[in-house]
Amino acid sequence: MKTKEFILLLLIIAVGVVFTHIYTEKWDVVFGWEEGWFWDAEEFSFEESEILEPPFPPELQIINDYGDIEIKGTEQENIQIQFTKKIRRRKKERAREIADGLDMVIERDSRQITLSNNRHDLRRTNLRTDFTISVPAGMDVLVKNRYGQVTASRLGEAEIIARNGKVVVWDITKKLIIWNSYEDVEADNVGLDCQVDSRNSDVKLSRIKGNTLIDQRYGTLDLEDLEGNLYIDAPHSKIYARGIAGSLEIENSYEKITLIDVGPTIIRGNNSPITIDGARENVEIDDRYSQVRLENIQGNVDIEGRDLNVYGKGIVAERITISTSY
To answer: pTM to 2 decimals?
Structure first.
């Protein structure tokens, strides 16, 4: 590649990065025909609130583009909504004009209440819309948030779609589903099944009463006190799991797997160092180009490997089968 072509390529990449950050509002750049370009706009906040009275349909749906959402169950019978508009402009008067045209939208039918806003109608950038919502404890909730953190607690069934944002959830009495990327996930005390689909983030789950299904790429999994079965598909993700009462099945590559006090275990790895300390039933491993360390196993052990180093201690089993090479 010639020098001029290389410089042109770097310029194209730089321009693409700049416009991507501006489009996703990661950089505070404001442009308008009446305002021009400037980089140091001030953020102004404007709030409005709404109270909804029962009876309510089974589900509350919240749809938001840019901003944080906090939703919590309370002992109150009504739904309380606080809508915060954060707008970056050089002058407060100009920010207020935009805020006056930005409204929350509430739609209601027999199936659900839908809470959103008219941000798309304004076609303006450098503004965030935050929701803080109190609902009757145990209410089912669906959240769709493109950019921003979602915090949820004391709900019934919860499904959270946060493609570019952190998710923090606790005290869910029914099923929990989380879809996210690029930010961490934390969930504690879920009454039924838990499903997490995440990319480029760390996931921490604890006290899950039902089965747990995880689809993860490029991150770390920290799992503790799971009462049901656990299935993990997580290439390029480090895995730590402790106190798994049900069966455990893992697919992984290129990262370390550490298991402590688990049930029957199946691992399919590739370049995955594996350590298991305490398994109450059978262990089955298929791995290559790495090492396996087993201690305190109360069940049969079957290991199929290539270029695989194997160490075992304290194994009580009717059968131990190891096939490896080099």
So the answer is: 0.84
